[in-house]
Amino acid sequence: MTSYDACIIGGGVIGCSIAAELSKRGYKTAILERGKAGNESSRAAAGLLGVQAEWDEYDPLFDLAKESRRMFPEAAAELRLETGIDIGYEEKGIYKIAETEEELHLLEQAAAWQTAAGEPALMMTGRELSEKEPLLTSALAGGVFYPKDGHVIAPALAKAYEQAALARGTEIFENTAAEELLVSSGKAAGIMVSGGKVIEAERIIISAGAWSTPFLKHFQCGMETYPVKGEMISVLSRKRLVHAPIYKNGFYIVPKREGRYLIGATVMERDYSKHIALNGMMGLMETAARILPSIREASFEDAWSGLRPQSSKGDPFMEEHPGIKGLYACTGHYRNGILLSPAAGKWMADLVEKIPAGGH
Ligand code: GLY
Fold first, then answer.
1. Pocket of ligand 1, candidates 262, 307, 336: which has the most ligand atoms within 8 Å of its Cβ, to mutate?
2. Cα pseudo-dihedral 259, 91, 228, 175, rounded to 10
3. pLDDT tens readout for residues 273-289
4. Residue of minimum CA distance from atom 2 in ligand 1
């Protein structure tokens, strides 16, 4: 029998960030991962840190998202120092664009709300957009620039958190599926894994993304997560196409290093399949070519899909079970797992240590 202070179900970017933080604070921590760490939605993500691009109006998660975005420069430096991995952190802003006057009006409303919330939001005419990003179509009605948003290389971030967790003492058990949570006298006691082996732990944290539902049944309030599949394409271009991500209604083109551009992403609810339909790819390519005509000349590199973990309440579950001591959930980060990963690690470690929010 193996015993830990904390055992995390799920080795995605959220689970690894929590493990890295708990190990740093001296907790003997393990991660159980049914496949390979960081190999699901963490690997598939575009890596947008789109706090303002994703939220157009107030949501309780907006504040945590802002806090997480603020943590990235330090997290990037710390992860690089500890693991040697460059997470490709870029704070060059995100452009949100409008093709019609109606869309521009909605952007104006969003920008006014952002400004009132104390976040910079610069409205731009179509001409001003063309001055900044000359290869965008000249047919745009305008847009808004959010200078504090940015992006990272999602697979690098997931790998960096995994390596940091390992370096700080976390043990990661890959190809090890959690099968049953063990609760004794109202307290978390451990997890039974495939083959019947028991991992003892006083604290269990459910971070299994779209696969969390079977474990969440202990919360007995209908909590569930489900997949929202997204398909994405990468292309390569020697010519610089855009300098910062271009975003429109959930569609985006994200410039990465070495001439790579990610084009994403489709949205398919409750689809666990990984296949990439031509339909989705064609929709992405058509929108990309309309907004950024020069992308037609780029070379196709790859296409993939990932399963965003949506939660039944719309926002992530990041809480301790009210009745079972030591049982926690941190899952359902939907479109924002990469963005929220630094804050989620700290939030959950603070919960474990009973440090009130905003403490330290
Ligand atoms: N964060 C962007 C997406 O989920 O497509």
1. 336
2. 80
3. 989 999 999 999 999 99
4. 335
